[in-house]
Specification:
Largest sheet: 2 strands, antiparallel
Strand content: 5-15%
Low-confidence stretches: none
Order of helices and strands: HEEH
Distance between the termini: 34 Å
Mean pLDDT: 73
Structural class: alpha+beta
Strand order of the largest sheet: 1-2
Radius of gyration: 16 Å
Number of helices: 2
Oligomer: single chain
Helix content: 25-40%
């Protein structure tokens, strides 16, 4: 538990140097542009069979 408390305030950054947020909202999706907003298993089936 001590380790979790220390890490709670630190930013998580992926290998590409992009900060990973704890929560993404609809506003984040709007700003990303061109992202498929459908849910898995619903048409249009653009995610592919290996998603």
């Amino acid at each position: 538990m001590e380790t979790l408390k220390k890490a709670a305030g630190k930013a998580v950054i992926n290998e590409s140097g992009i900060e990973i947020k704890k929560l993404y909202t609809a506003e984040d999706v709007e700003r990303s542009g061109g992202v498929d907003k459908s849910l898995p298993g619903q048409p249009p089936f653009t995610r592919g069979i290996h998603a």
